[in-house]
Amino acid sequence: MADWLAALHRRAELRAKAGLTRRLHPRSAGEAVTDLAGNDYLGLATHPEVTAAAARALSAYGLGATGSRLVRGSTDTHHALEDALANWLGADRALVFSSGYLANLGALRALVQPRTLLVSDAHNHASLIDGCRISGAETVVTPHTDVAAVAAALAAAPGRPAVVVTESVFSVDGDLAPLAELHAVARRHGALLLVDDAHGLGVTGPAGAGAVAAAGLAGQPDVVVTATLSKALGGAGGLVAGPAEFVRHLVETGRTFIFDTALPPAVAAGVRAAVALARAADPLRAELVDRAALAVRRLRAAGLTVSDPDAAVISVTAPGPEAATAWAADCRDRGVAVGCFRPPSTPDTRSRLRLTLNAGVPREDFVRALEVIVECAP
What we know:
Layout: H1 3-17, E1 34-36, H2 48-61, H3 69-73, H4 76-89, E2 93-97, H5 100-111, E3 117-121, H6 126-135, E4 138-142, H7 147-155, E5 162-167, H8 179-188, E6 192-196, H9 211-214, E7 223-228, E8 238-242, H10 244-253, H11 255-258, H12 265-279, H13 282-301, E9 313-317, H14 321-333, E10 336-341, E11 352-356, H15 363-376
Parallel strand pairs: 1-10, 3-4, 3-5, 5-6, 6-7
Antiparallel strand pairs: 2-8, 7-8, 9-11, 10-11
């Protein structure tokens, strides 16, 4: 009976030898750390209007939704949030899920019909990869942001329904997908385009409506947008936005929607308040652009290899997984939280630190954090 536990222990030893051990580090509410690891891009998670809206809903509805959306969990707060999101994104309708991960799983499964071909970017997030797998559809993985490879994959499957699957701003290196070009190729071959705009929503586009809107694709009938509500909006949950008929299809058939307890109403209310703030946050978006440029200049001047950020995600190459882990730990010991990405979380086996910018961090703290990262570099 203990054999399976011994096998797990051996696998943990192998991960440790490869520098791939992962640990949970609890943080307190008042932790004095400069946060360049979380995804609260606009600093809205603690905005007083957001927390006040959540508190009012908490008092009115209680802690949880108490059921799935189709049973008991679909409150007027959820519907108001969906209306606000659809209006912001320029979509017919939006549907809120309890996480961005489940939104991606549900959207991909709902887009698949017999003989569907999925064409997925090699650097896509794990939720998109898992969504492709769970859908059961044939999936072709194309080189990162390679429009010609996408066109070739679609051309090799004439007459088949197909979906091109991509992030907008990629979560590891922060680069932007060529959305307009991908849409043109998809449309030429009669394919749909699914875009996970998790790292673009609130950060890019007109009034922060995301990279899909920035590419001029908002409301297109052959485009489906997914995103999380946990990044620039500072909350939790996920969304799928697109044609009304597709959202209806999700409500009636989407297993990750039908059989999952709804997002807590307090979170939905807080996120709705965050949407209003995000739409008016052009000065904060300008600050993110300025900080990204500053970070790239400072880190490259120190001889570090840094990605070219298209939004608020910056990747800094580390020599290997153990060096990346030690680098992140040293930064944390000096009061700076940074992301540490190692295989298998990285699509190219390259380890790196990931810096996610937060306009709510005082600028002087941000500048000091860059110095700490440089001083702790291996």
